[in-house]
Design a protein that fits this description.
This protein is mainly alpha-helical and 490 residues long. Helices cover 76% and strands 2% of the residues. It contains 20 helices and 2 strands. Strands 1-2 form a two-stranded antiparallel sheet. The longest helix has 32 residues. The chain starts with 16 loop residues before the first helix and ends with a helix.
């Protein structure tokens, strides 16, 4: 049953649905990077060890990776708006926990709850597909998907300003207030989607997916501290692989799987998820190294000695570029197809890292290169959900986009591990302190550049953009009832 908005019937809040969902996505995305400027100060502020402080980022990554596909599936089955509200409630609760305590255990628990709210973005994309008329779908999902990058770019400078001028708890109080505002806006503006996916909730599949992801991401994010050849790291990787194989076998046999592996194995879906992982890796390198690089002292020979606030502001033009380019990228996808848009995005990101490789001594050229990378990311993040929605049934939109968002998160986790390893192993002594060499940063740019080109290669193997009817071009193509019935009975 189509919604009033999609059917063209007037609604007093119809024009506010997309801005509200995009604002929710941006708030959630900000949470992912909010503590990065705080991390070096956490041991002094809380009495925790540096290793424990690192969990403020690790736990957010873990809970986001686990809950994003799970809550996407729950939303498809029981109501996307309902699950969206629950996710925003969890975000608000996590922010309040961090705001009222300086205990590292409470902070880690709060950050875990904040990470679980990452499911807001794929849920918002799915609501947009269900609720909006065809001609508005692509521009709206482009904006919604881009909030993941926009929020990351905005979160760093905002957090840096708070750290330098206010008590550090202030940013968590502000997060709680924004989460509450999101809840009220969704209750008032966003309608419940009438689209449902039949079946029973796959509890065993959820537990298997959780075990596989936790083992994999723990090994990736903590491997540098534990040692890549340590028994703990190798044991987690081995256990994750074993659980993943058992989970995959079970999912193929159950009638209502958490992840429909038959759909996920289609080239159009599989290669899109591979590209998402590579794009996530390439994008995150930009966020990780820009601030650190410009803060390096001038004694290193390449550093600029910028303040924490200035280093954060270096990413702000990229965030603004992502806002400006989201409608442009939607037009590219509509005119030439999302495959062509993703290929263009990969080329732009690779070009941005080429700029960064050759101009790493100038602050303005660093900002320019970082902005070019962000511009490519904006085009990629709008094309990815459009590619996913062309290839999956309407009733699986939130789950499929949740899996795609998960792949971006896995790419970011891999990037974090690689960047940490490179910067830790290529060092020298400058001004009485140990710092990464310039070649370490240049190597990161080369790796990120190669990853963007690998995303281009994956994109070129996607099924070509063929002329379709208008509804399909706008990303609203549905799977026929007979195909859906055949898949459910398989």
């Amino acid at each position: 049953m189509p919604s009033a908005i999609a059917a063209g019937r007037p609604s007093p809040h119809a024009r506010l649905v997309v801005p509200v969902l995009a604002f929710c996505g941006m708030v959630v995305a900000v949470m992912q990077t909010l503590v990065v400027p705080l991390l070096p100060h956490v041991p002094a502020l809380t009495g925790a060890s540096p290793g424990a402080a690192g969990w403020l980022v690790t736990i957010t990554l873990l809970t986001g990776a686990v809950f994003t596909p799970v809550l996407g599936r729950v939303g498809d089955m029981y109501g996307k708006r309902r699950v969206l509200l629950a996710s925003l409630g969890v975000l608000t609760l996590g922010s309040l926990l961090c705001a009222v305590s300086s205990d590292i255990g409470v902070l880690i628990a709060g950050r875990g709850l904040q990470g679980a709210a990452l499911a807001v973005i794929p849920l918002g994309i799915s609501i947009i597909r269900d609720e909006l008329p065809a001609e508005r779908v692509l521009p709206s999902i482009a904006l919604m998907s881009s909030t993941l990058g926009i929020g990351a770019a905005i979160g760093l400078p905002v957090a840096a300003v708070v750290m330098e001028n206010f008590d550090w708890h202030t940013m968590f109080w502000a997060s709680a207030a924004l989460g509450l505002l999101d809840l009220l806006l969704v209750l008032r503006i966003v309608p419940e989607s009438p689209v449902r996916s039949p079946g029973r909730f796959d509890l065993l599949g959820t537990l298997g997916l959780t075990g596989c992801l936790v083992g994999l991401l723990l090994a990736i994010t903590r491997g540098a501290d534990w040692g890549w050849g340590s028994a703990r790291t190798l044991g987690l990787l081995g256990a994750s692989a074993a659980v993943g194989l058992l989970w995959g076998r079970y999912e193929l046999r159950t009638r209502s799987p958490m992840v429909d592996l038959r759909v996920s194995a289609r080239p159009a879906v599989l290669l899109t998820n591979v590209a998402a992982l590579l794009i996530g890796f390439s994008f995150y390198a930009n966020s990780l190294v820009t601030g650190q690089m410009v803060q390096e002292p001038t004694s290193t020979g390449y550093g600029i000695g910028a303040s924490m606030v200035v280093s954060g502001l270096c990413l702000l033009p990229g965030g603004l570029a992502m806002v400006a380019l989201s409608p442009v990228s939607a037009r590219i996808s509509a005119a030439y197809g999302p495959r062509s848009a993703l290929a263009l995005a990969s080329v732009v990101m690779a070009a941005g890292y080429a700029v960064r490789f050759f101009t790493s001594h100038s602050l303005w050229m660093i900002v320019a290169g970082a902005t070019v990378v962000s511009s490519g990311t904006a085009i990629a993040y709008s094309a990815l959900p459009a590619l996913v929605m062309r290839a999956v049934p309407v009733g699986e939109t939130a789950a499929a986009n949740g899996l795609n968002t998960l792949m971006r998160s896995v790419g970011q986790a891999c990037c974090s591990a690689v960047v940490a390893a490179v910067l830790a192993h290529l060092t020298f002594t400058a001004g009485g302190r140990t710092a990464p060499t310039l070649h370490a940063y240049l190597l990161v740019f080369l790796i990120a550049d190669a990853t963007a080109l690998a995303a281009l290669a994956a994109t070129l193997f996607l099924p070509s953009d063929r002329p379709r009817e208008r509804g399909a071009q706008e990303g609203t193509v549905a799977v026929s009832a007979s195909e859906t019935a055949a898949r459910e009975s398989a």
